[in-house]
Design brief:
With 390 residues, the chain is of the alpha/beta class. It has 2 domains: 6-14 and 261-380, Aspartate Aminotransferase, domain 1, CATH 3.90.1150.10; 18-258, 3-Layer(aba) Sandwich (Aspartate Aminotransferase, domain 2). It is built from 14 helices and 15 strands. Strands 2-10-9-8-7-5-6 form a 7-stranded mixed β-sheet, with helices on both faces. Strands 4-3-11 form a 3-stranded antiparallel β-sheet, with no helix packed on it. Strand 5 (95-99), helix 4 (104-107) and strand 6 form a beta-alpha-beta unit. The chain is globular, with a radius of gyration of 22 Å.
């Protein structure tokens, strides 16, 4: 009999939806080059355009403003360019201002790295609005990047407020909505952003598909990949029809879930478990004082090293993480927690639990049982904050 496992790392990648698998298998059943003009090619084109409509609906955008990419990282790379045209005229940013807790694919600055400045955040990970105002005050065309939902803490940024400030200065706003899609309602018009990033595999689609969504039909970032006329000449290369078709189905289901999905109260469970073992004064739940998405809980228990805890959870059948999957294969310091001024000895204890549509009560119970056992062992060990909280 197989040992039961609980997958609680949906922020890294979500399980492939059954409906997505079916859509992809259908696409794989015939030749699928969407650039061909014969019947098979037109059928493939139909799949791509249907997916474009479905992804556009997810974020309430015009389908013509959806550019399919290989993922959010490529979408970010295309958006982070000085070669931006508005109404046909080149209008380059004078500075690139990026939140300190952004995903590394945005934080790096892409082609704007030389004019990159970091916007500080407060202790809960929210953008310092006053600092941002000062930073954009003297800029002719500020370009600001802000993540709607942080992948590690689940903290929700006031994107619409930030976008209003930047747009009033005649600037651009990029919003990484990867972790928000399917979890909270998304409307690119209400957010007021120019560029929005999406990734299929975060909402139950396949890895290898994503999108850059434009907030303005007259806005054109220079193509990152050139050499072909695909994606209305905005992204060269034969479309990954099967992955895109699956992306569309995942987006369609995620659109409905954003209004109806409820998630297990993991944070409450963590608090109750640590209190039961007398560890309440050693527990830190990051971002707990600000709006957070309910599927994500990032916490640290002083005296419980993340590296040890991850192995323990995994051996007992629970898959969780210590932070963003961009640091795949290692347990290292979190730049998100560092930006929030979390002491290194506490940040090294950080664990992230992220749930999704497939999370069931049995998953939660297994996590609870393992956490209870680990907390009991942690409480039984001698603890000195200065030496043991590594």
């Amino acid at each position: 009999m197989a040992t039961p496992r609980a997958y609680l790392d949906h922020n890294a990648t979500a399980p492939l939806r059954t409906s997505v698998r079916a859509a992809m298998e259908h696409a794989f059943a015939a030749p699928v080059n969407a650039s061909s003009i014969h019947g098979e090619g037109r059928a493939a084109r139909g799949m791509v355009e249907e997916a474009r409509r479905q992804v556009a609906t997810l974020v309430v955008a015009d389908p013509t403003n959806v550019i399919f990419t290989s993922g959010a990282t490529e979408a970010a790379a295309q958006a982070l360019t000085a070669d931006i045209r508005l109404n046909g005229e080149r209008r380059s940013p004078s500075a690139f201002l990026v939140g300190a807790t952004e995903h590394p694919c945005v934080l790096s600055g892409g082609q704007l790295a030389e004019i990159r400045q970091t916007i500080p955040v407060n202790g809960n990970g929210l953008i310092d609005i006053d600092a941002l105002k000062d930073m954009i005050a003297g800029e002719a065309v500020p370009y600001v990047a802000v993540q709607l939902v942080n992948s590690e803490t689940g903290v929700i940024q006031p994107v619409a407020e930030i976008a209003s400030l930047v747009r009033a200065k005649g600037g651009y706003v990029l919003c990484d909505a990867v972790q928000a899609a399917g979890r909270i309602p998304l409307n690119i018009n209400e957010l007021g952003v120019d560029f929005l990033l999406l990734s299929a595999h975060k909402i139950g689609g396949a890895q290898g598909a994503g999108a850059l969504v434009l907030g303005n039909s007259t806005l054109e970032p220079a193509p990152l990949l050139t050499g072909g006329a695909q994606e209305n000449r905005r992204r060269a290369g034969t479309e990954n029809v099967a992955a895109i078709a699956g992306f569309g189905v995942a987006a369609q289901e995620a659109t409905a879930e954003a209004d109806t999905m409820t998630y297990p109260a993991i944070a409450k469970l963590v608090v109750e478990t640590t209190e039961r073992h007398g560890l309440a004064d050693r527990l830190h739940i990051f971002g707990k004082d600000e709006p957070r998405i309910s599927n994500t809980t990032c916490f640290a228990l002083e005296g419980l090293e993340a590296q040890t805890a991850l192995i323990d959870f995994d051996l007992r059948g629970v898959a969780i993480s210590s932070g963003s999957a961009c640091s795949s294969g290692k347990v290292g310091a979190s730049h998100v927690l560092a930006a929030m001024d979390v002491p290194a000895e506490i940040a090294k204890c950080a664990l992230r639990i992220s749930t999704g549509p497939t999370t069931c009560q049995a998953d939660v119970q297994l996590f609870a049982d393992v956490l209870d056992s680990i907390a009991a062992k942690t409480a039984a060990r001698p603890f000195n904050p200065k030496t043991n909280a590594a």
